[in-house]
Amino acid sequence: PKHPPPCNTPTNLVAVTMRMWTVLLAALVPCILAANVNIGNGMLEVDVGLNRGEASVGVGVGGASRVELCNVNEESMTGVCVKQGTCNNDYLGTDGINLGLCDQKDSAGIDQYQCCQTVNDCGSKTSSVVSYYQNPSFPAEDRDDVACNIRITARARVCQFRVEFLEFELPRPDGIGVCSAQNHMAILSPGLRSGLLGSSNNRLCGINTGQHVYIPVSPGDDVQFVATLSGVAAVPIALTPQPFASSVSYKWNIRVIQIYCDDPNYPFAYLQAPSGCLQYHTDAFGSLKSFNYDGTSIMAPNQDYAICIRNEGDGPGGRTCSITYRAINFGVPVGGSDAGPCRSGALVTNPLPGVNRECCLNPRSSYVAITGAGAATTFRRYWCGLNFGAGGDQEQITSRIKPFVVNVRAGAHTLADLQSPPGTTEPFIGFSFDYKVDSGICNV
């Protein structure tokens, strides 16, 4: 299915039943529990047991006969059904929050299970199918200096983590867009050989609420989330140009979903991203933003990643024709030989003698790569500078190239690249787009 199953239990908890049996192995080899997942007419075997001898969320050795996911439609309250009285103890290995009753009952058919949300404390480790990482005082903000890390282990047959920043408000980056060593969150994984954002860049800071990333994993991989906060740096509180609107309090609430790839009946199967995509948008329309975007902070240097959008329309057969992007805000840094002629964003080619190439390709420049054209802009591939093409912020660019992918590259810009005249920093704030997948009758 493209979307999770509808809510159909009396307690408004969506449950996907996982029936389990025990596979006996030789002596000294830990018991491994497996499950059949019944969803509609589909049948899927999913490992919900032990990984390398460690008990997983919602599963006890020789214990529960069934495991259910609950609240799969509620991004901030997804959980696992567990026996009553076990949600807030060592059975989970992490803190648990009781969200209500599941429709599942115990083996005697008497007591209903509880929907338990897995929340990771600083220093904890889990292999839960769905888990949360929050600042220590969440939902309240924190102001103290803190170093907080967790580890999430990839389960058998899992190939991706989808990391959703439900809330993310950390101190802003510095004057050239770099997250400081004292105020950032880093995500580290064996599958991120070039860094989370590419170019060995693993750090996030500023505002990333509503963003998400995909992390490629292999079973058994440990993905680390490391937050380092000083408690004294300014945190943006607005997405409008208000440079003095800030406080020193910070907060985050992150949901991590383990994706069982190529399993069409898994509740979150529709979220599986194509290979190579740091972000994957499944809706026919929505918004795209650069990381750490708050409307005032400079776009981070040293990035190289791809944003992918599902190539399927809302009409019969899901046919698509093209995709249209409209810039809400656009300011992508240029540097080196691009700093003068390509600064406005209107030119396709850098006209300087001896350059003779497209704008945006200097190593100190950044770009958003979309192959398309607009009403005021001729066909081009790379977009940078202070405007989204010749039409400025009101320009709409249409692309017919499939699959729908936006490549983002940020060069090693310097403070001098950002200033014109010297001492006055240009608003190279990154990008904020609206997009719409165009479907129906296509004009070729």
What would you note in describing this structure?
The protein contains one helix and 31 strands. The protein has 444 residues and is mostly beta strands. Strands 1, 2, 3, 6, 7, 8, 9, 11, 13, 16 and 20 form an eleven-stranded mixed sheet that branches. Strands 21, 22, 23, 24, 27, 28, 29, 30 and 31 form a nine-stranded mixed sheet that branches. The chain has a five-stranded mixed sheet with strand order 10-12-17-14-15, with no helix packed on it. A hairpin with a 6-residue loop joins strand 8 (95-105) and strand 9. The longest helix is centred in the C-terminal third of the chain and has 4 residues, at 415-418. The protein is globular and about 80 Å long.
What distinguishing features does this structure have?
444 residues, mainly beta, 1 helix, 41% strand
Please render the helix and strand layout as text.
Layout: E1 16-23, E2 32-39, E3 42-47, E4 50-51, E5 54-55, E6 66-70, E7 79-82, E8 95-105, E9 112-120, E10 125-126, E11 130-134, E12 146-153, E13 158-169, E14 184-188, E15 203-204, E16 212-216, E17 222-229, E18 235-236, E19 246-247, E20 251-260, E21 279-281, E22 285-289, E23 303-309, E24 320-331, E25 349-350, E26 357-358, E27 367-374, E28 380-383, E29 396-399, E30 404-410, H1 415-418, E31 430-439
Parallel strand pairs: 9-11, 10-12, 21-23
Antiparallel strand pairs: 1-2, 1-6, 2-3, 4-5, 6-7, 7-9, 8-9, 11-20, 12-17, 13-16, 13-20, 14-15, 14-17, 18-19, 22-31, 23-30, 24-29, 24-31, 25-26, 27-28, 27-29, 27-30
